Amino acid sequence: MMGPRPKTVTKKLRRRNEVVDPINLPDQDGRTTLVNATLSNIPTLVQLLLESHANINRQDKQGNTALICAAKKGYSKIAEILLDAKADVTLTNRQDQSAFDLCRSARIQSLLAKQTELSSEQEFKALEEKEKFASNCKAEGDKYFNMAITLTDEEVIIESIGEAIRFYKAAMHYEPEDPALRAAWKSAVDFRRRLSIISQRASNRSTQNDSEENTLELTLEGKVQR
Q1: HEC profile for 134-198?
Q2: The pTM is what?
Q3: How many C-beta atoms lie closer than 10 Å to residue 152's C-beta?
Q4: Could you tell me the end-to-end alpha-carbon distance of the chain, in angstroms, rounded to an integer?
Q5: How many CA atoms lie within 13 A of 221 on its CB side?
Q6: Secondary structure (H, E, C), the chain
Q7: CA 212 to CA 113: how far, in whole Å?
Q8: Do the beta carbons of residue 46 and residue 35 sit within 8 Å?
Q9: Cβ(168)–Cβ(138) under 8 Å?
Q10: CB-based contacts of 221: which residues, under 8 Å, 6+ apart?
């Protein structure tokens, strides 16, 4: 015989006649759906939750807000959505770290700087330059990657994929956690690795064929001499 079903948090709250707010209901780590959507890098869900009146500044047990999580992870699209919705940029976690303190993305740092008075005009311009540099490098990387996968000349392909990786790495200097950039860099590295394997196999086959031809020539020469 089965025992009674466990009571969910929602049912317990209803029994107590308390108002149930599932959107802002925290999990065991104190994280709301908004924070978890941010950590999962789902911009559309973040936008939907904000439109449904999710508490944008709710902190988890470590004191992290959705904005702090987005900044730390390098999720610039979500950070932009949160800032447009007036997320508090001054809040800090239990380690007294703000979103700006934990951010390594020039793009997000630039967005945060616009919302605070902590950065001087010179520092703000420097952040914008870094953001622009990273964006341009990403565009160049995409261009060379596209060349590598569409051209047919092996030498040009090898050179193009090398340039793509070089530009992606330069961009990652200022956007080390950007998921799209890291995915592009990993794809380019994997493409070059596979290209290297194919080239090595072709080289081995060529060496083997040369060896077989030499053996055949020596055999024929021996027969002629006899």
Answers
A1: HHHHHHHHHHHHHHHHHCCCHHHHHHHHHHHHHHHHHHHCCCCCCHHHHHHHHHHHHHHHHHHHH
A2: 0.71
A3: 6
A4: 95
A5: 6
A6: CCCCCCCCHHHHHHHCCCCCCHHHCCCCCCCCHHHHHHHCCCHHHHHHHHHCCCCCCCCCCCCCCHHHHHHHHCCHHHHHHHHHCCCCCCCCCCCCCCHHHHCCCHHHHHHHHHHCCCCCHHHHHHHHHHHHHHHHHHHHHHHHHHHHHHCCCHHHHHHHHHHHHHHHHHHHCCCCCCHHHHHHHHHHHHHHHHHHHHHHHHHHHHHHHHHHHHHHHHHHHHHHHC
A7: 68
A8: no
A9: yes
A10: none
Give me 47's structure tokens.
């936008």
Q: Tokens in use for 73?
A: 């992870």
pLDDT per residue, tens digit, the chain (226 aa), is 445 544 444 444 555 555 667 889 999 999 999 999 999 999 999 999 999 999 999 999 999 999 999 999 999 999 999 999 999 999 999 999 999 999 989 999 989 988 776 566 777 788 889 989 999 999 999 999 999 999 888 889 999 999 999 999 999 999 998 889 999 999 999 999 998 888 777 666 555 555 555 554 545 455 555 5
Tell me the C-alpha distance between 113 and 116, whole Å: 5
Spatial separation of the C-alpha atoms in residues 48 and 40, rounded to whole Å: 14
CB 85 within 8 A of CB 56: yes
Amino acid at 30: G
